[in-house]
Amino acid sequence: MANRSAAVLVAGSWGTALAAVLARNGCRVRLWTRNLAQAEEINVKRTNSRFLGDVTLPQGLLATASMEEALTGAEAVVFVAPSAAMREVARAAAPYLSSSALCLHATKGFETGTLKRMTTVLAEELGRPESELAVLSGPSHAEEVVRKLPTTVVVASRSLTVAQQAQDWFMNTNFRVYTNDDVTGVEVAGAIKNIIALGAGLSDGLGFGDNAKAALITRGLAEISRLGEAMGAGPLTFAGLAGVGDLIVTCTSKHSRNWRAGSLLATGLALGEVLERMGMVVEGVRTTQAANQLAQDYGVPMPITEQLYRVLFEGKSPQQAVEALMGRDRTHERREA
């Protein structure tokens, strides 16, 4: 991949980390941001301090506030916009995209309102079939990836050729990439695990201990699998990197935004105050709204998601939510929630 050109949209923590991976693989990378001051900091100081502290970014990575400059000549384009902004960013990018450019995304969420997966949003805005697109996901905190700590992810596409192309762009000795053909499973797993991480942060913030968190993660995985399979995903995906792998790291790591947001909620802060303190997108909040509606649409029981929805948007206390979960009717582990 040496001397090839790639673009990454946008310059948040994960977008910057993936841009760094590509630059270290010898690619010329243009990282797009709306923020001129952020672009200048990246280009002059070689840092993105708001999102990644004092980590020095590789020289092959340059930032720009011009979409046209970012995409001109790009042979691979990685969309890492927040789910709420993905359609807007894709629409702005479409006029400058080469028809031969590899396109993939690394965003974990659903579109608000339509409840569409990010691959579907990209396909609509870029005028491409979903089979020509890919998604990168898995247990991969940006703070560790940018420091070249060992990380393993999965890239999924309905086309094995597209998946392998994406694998070739990113693979190196610090960043191992597997391929998968279950796009729906990978996207659903990546989105819903953020909800369970919010719950894990709440549980830890309330001092409920390791037993409670282990149960939350395990039953959370059951909810992810049920919804994913109802939407057409393969069950084995949820036992892989995009499923249980990402779920574990997001529910247990100090780097997890969703875990931190949940722990702040446990202190009694209102959701608006929590989001203001975070200062970054917390995808699990929007995803809770989407997943709660998807559960109803598909007739899938998702009691953890339902209770978190009530905490986030209906004023229910975390303690009451736990009591509701623990007081549910008895059932069989493998047959129902």
Automatic annotation (TrEMBL):
Sn-glycerol 3-phosphate binds at K108, G138, S140, K193, D246, S256, R257, N258. GO terms for cellular component: cytosol. One of its GO terms (molecular function) is glycerol-3-phosphate dehydrogenase [NAD(P)+] activity. Keywords: Cytoplasm, Lipid biosynthesis, Lipid metabolism, NAD, NADP, Nucleotide-binding, Oxidoreductase, Phospholipid biosynthesis, Phospholipid metabolism. Residues 182-323 form the Glycerol-3-phosphate dehydrogenase NAD-dependent C-terminal domain. PROSITE patterns: NAD_G3PDH. It comes from the Bacteria. It catalyses: sn-glycerol 3-phosphate + NAD(+) = dihydroxyacetone phosphate + NADH + H(+); sn-glycerol 3-phosphate + NADP(+) = dihydroxyacetone phosphate + NADPH + H(+). GO terms for biological process: carbohydrate metabolic process; glycerol-3-phosphate biosynthetic process; glycerol-3-phosphate catabolic process; glycerophospholipid metabolic process; phospholipid biosynthetic process. Substrate binds at K108, R257, N258. HAMAP family: NAD_Glyc3P_dehydrog (MF_00394). Belongs to the NAD-dependent glycerol-3-phosphate dehydrogenase family. This is Glycerol-3-phosphate dehydrogenase [NAD(P)+].
